[in-house]
Give the backbone structure.
Amino acid sequence: MKEYGDFVSEADRMVIASLREFVTDEILPYRQHLDTDTERAHTHRVLNGLAAMGMHKRGLPESLGGIRTGAVSFVVGYEEIARGDCGIALTLSVPAWVFGAAVRSRNERVLEDLCRPFCGDSFREACLAMTEPEGGCNVECAEYRGKAIHTRARLEGDHWVINGAKQFPSGAGVSDVYLIACTTDPDLEEEGIALIYVPADTLGLSFSKPEDKMGMRFTDVNASVFLDDVRVPKEYRASMEPGKDAESLKNLLAWGRLSSAAFATGVAQAVLDIALEFTGQRHYGGKQVRQHTLQAAMLADMIIGVESARFYYLTAASMFDNRKVYGHHYSDEQIARATGAKIYAAETALKVCNMAMELTGSYGYMRNYHIEKYLRDVKIIQLWEGGAQLGRIDVARGRYQMVPYV
Ligand SMILES: Cc1cc2nc3c(=O)[nH]c(=O)nc-3n(C[C@H](O)[C@H](O)[C@H](O)COP(=O)(O)OP(=O)(O)OC[C@H]3O[C@@H](n4cnc5c(N)ncnc54)[C@H](O)[C@@H]3O)c2cc1C
């Protein structure tokens, strides 16, 4: 546990120790099962095992039985889980992001009606639906200020009526609650952005069949979401305060990207461990593979990458924990930090997977060495939430007035 340095508290170390034991016993031996888990029986077993440890309550409101944590405590837990399976880490983390918007706006109706069941003993899935068929970056790009969101919400008496479609969100079709990023009027720009909660059984909400994907094949379910005159109480909008939902959308991006950095670092660490073990057991020229300078240099580069990725996201998380000095999580500067950490960790994880495959020869290409699964799973972390290109623009925006689209 020394790898987290002084970023973590004694309480965090206890959580990390329990998670490490859980991952070793309950996830690592079942990685292949999770990859072929069409009925999601292993996925639910693992998620409920983590729920039994209270992990599903982290980030949910204390008033409902949730567990308040700082950013560092929140994300290190996800690095630990992602060492076993980053799809599990993702699915476990989504409810805290989804209800984060209601918590920020002190929306008691949403918390009472929809969030309370998430604080029970078993794990429930939630879905944050931003991406649209017309584009994911369009919704997430701060410079568009909501003008490119196509899903429309109109107020009719005491209800919001929503029409539109969402593409690919995690948990689509299997979640209890959907947080839909809409606009009430694109001309209102950020003031038009509305984050609206929709319970799964609402009339007019439907889904395509799940996507057939490269990685996170069953631990995360992705599908299209269709909203056809979906009607929910007006209190289910996260906030009625002008501009507040736009702020919350940016906040969600900042947290999602910070957490993604921890997921990717967990993958990189897991694959580095596999490569270290393999190169310690296999020999050529009378020495362990890892005792040869050529391979030692590769392992050193992998170690440098993993440690840099970890210190990057931990530093960003510690700045999230000190709002007085570093400001709101939705500020351009904080989004840039979280985004930089995500880009760096995802690219490091991909590099580490490739290098591990070279170090393990054809063995690493075989499914029972798991490297190929980590590689398939982690690729999407680079692509989601705006991908590496919009991500880089957000990093630049955090530093200077970069206005590429106006
Ligand atoms: C496993 C998985 C999980 C996912 N989970 C979620 C989820 O929980 N919620 C959700 O809403 N979505 C989710 N997504 C969708 C994902 O976030 C988007 O696919 C992603 O943001 C990219 O959007 P896009 O595919 O529409 O590509 P586009 O936005 O069309 O981008 C295509 C290309 O153009 C570039 N590009 C486009 N616009 C810009 C821009 N303004 N600036 C710079 N570059 C740009 C992109 O970088 C990319 O290279 C998930 C997808 C998968 C596969």
Notes: The longest strand covers residues 225-233. The mean pLDDT is 96. Residues 126-241 form a domain with the Butyryl-CoA Dehydrogenase, subunit A; domain 2 fold (CATH 2.40.110.10).
